Amino acid sequence: MTDKRIFNFNAGPAALPIQVLEEIQSFFLNFDQSGMSITEISHRSSYFDNVINDAVQRAKRLLKLDDRFHVLFLQGGASLQFAMIPMNFLSKDDTADYINTGTWSTKAIKEAQIQKKNYTIVASSEDKDFSYIPKNIQFSKDAGYVHMTSNNTIKGTQFHEFPDTNGVPIICDMSSDIFSRPLDMEKFGLIYAGAQKNLGPSGTCIVIIRQDMLDMAKEDLPSMLKYSTYASKNSMYNTPSCFGIYTIDLVLKWIEEEMGGIEKMEEYNIKKADLLYDFIDSSSFYRTTAQKYSRSLMNVTFRLPGEDLEKQFVVEATENGFGGLKGHRSVGGCRASIYNAATMESIKALVQFMESFEKENK
Ligand SMILES: *Cc1c(COP(=O)(O)O)cnc(C)c1O
User: Residue 311 belongs to what domain range?
Assistant: First the structure.
């Protein structure tokens, strides 16, 4: 227990910028001089219209999206997208390509399988416990889309370049690295991300979809499972997650106005990750689990010389004010999630702690 804020390295829900939390706090009882909290206002009010429109416009500016792209907010997390994607884009005779780079990709594939859709796994790194990003992938000629996960939150790997798919639109799960770097949007037909890693609280999923994908999406589906429902109603066919969208708007504002935009955000993310990886590489005590060219700038997965030491490391880290360093329960080891909101200060403090832990336990 502590009455101070910790250095939070949680994988998700994850740390948010302190400036955003403070802004939420200062306007929590009276939002935009409405006399109400953001959690109390109508989603049909002009107050909320301003919020959602601002969030959409900021997302478009940051990613340099042209008019073909719609920015939508859905519920059901990234996991609902795993199911909605094959549901909306694959009819009986269609097929899709999937790249399998970890737990989340595997779950996305499973949802296509449950619906008995046609798909091909064109590349997988399962042979080496998902510790690398596959290269030189051969795509099918007739695929409707290529599905991939840009950053593998659990395994600590990341695509640093997106593959050339011969014009087949990429559908990408960017839950754990959206808005961490600029994107060449020509490649993408749809990108999606659960908000709780890099963008806001849990409960909201951002979907960015290109008009031609929307035109291809199936219409004979339940309203809440069709992209067109959200696109035609500015994400307000039913009551959206107002607080979630509001927080996302503040985080996007923070990237634009405090961090200086997405290129600057990327530079900062590279500096932060380099600091941690350089330290681990220089140590004979810690080692990373991902192959060097595949290492994630967002989730740094690492091991210590033994499982008992790893347990002790997490306990002592907690005592010293560092949270979230335990690896995912499915893989063990340790993980520091250093999304956009992680500060250089927190990483310097972590490196210092890791140095002294190494000295005492070598
Ligand atoms: C966390 C995560 C998910 C799951 O997100 P939910 O919003 O909980 O459904 C999916 N994909 C990736 C890459 C993630 O990091």
Answer: 261-361
Residue 327 and residue 248 share a domain:
no
Ligand 1 atom closest to Cα of residue 196: 7
In one-letter notation, the amino acid at residue 51 is V
Structural domain contains residue 8: no
Q: Are residues 253 and 345 in the same domain?
A: no
111 Cβ below 6 A of ligand 1: no
Q: Would residue 1 count as lying in a domain? A: no
Nearest CA to ligand 1 atom 14: 175
Report the candidate in 322, 212, 215, 328 with the shortest Cα–Cα distance to residue 276. 322
Q: Is residue 121 part of a domain?
A: yes
- Write the DSSP symbol of residue 241: -
Pocket test for ligand 1, best of 82, 105, 151, 175 (most atoms within 8 A of CB): 175
**Looking at the structure, do residues 275 and 146 belong to the same domain, yes or no?**
no
Supply the CATH number for residue 197's domain. Answer: 3.40.640.10
Choose which residue among 104, 192, 339 to substitute to test ligand 1 binding: the one with the highest number of ligand atoms within 8 A of its C-beta. Answer: 104
Distances (CA, A) of 12 to 53, 89, 150: 26, 29, 16
Estimate to the nearest angstrom the gap between the alpha carbon of 251 and the chain centroid.
14
**Catalytic annotation, pick one of 117, 155, 177, 197:** 197
Sign of the Cα pseudo-torsion (318, 320, 322, 327, in order): negative
Alpha-carbon span 247 to 195, nearest angstrom: 10
What domain count does the chain have? 2
CATH number at residue 284: 3.90.1150.10
198 lines ligand 1 (CB under 6 A): no
Q: What is the pLDDT along the chain (362 residues), one digit of tens a residue?
A: 788 999 999 999 999 999 999 999 999 999 999 999 999 999 999 999 999 999 999 999 999 999 999 999 999 999 999 999 999 999 999 999 999 999 999 999 999 999 999 999 999 999 999 999 999 999 999 999 999 999 999 999 999 999 999 999 999 999 999 999 999 999 999 999 999 999 999 999 999 999 999 999 999 999 999 999 999 999 999 999 999 999 999 999 999 999 999 999 999 999 999 999 999 999 999 999 999 999 999 999 999 999 999 999 999 999 999 999 999 988 889 999 999 999 999 999 999 999 999 999 98
Question: Is residue 11 one of the residues assigned to a domain?
Answer: no
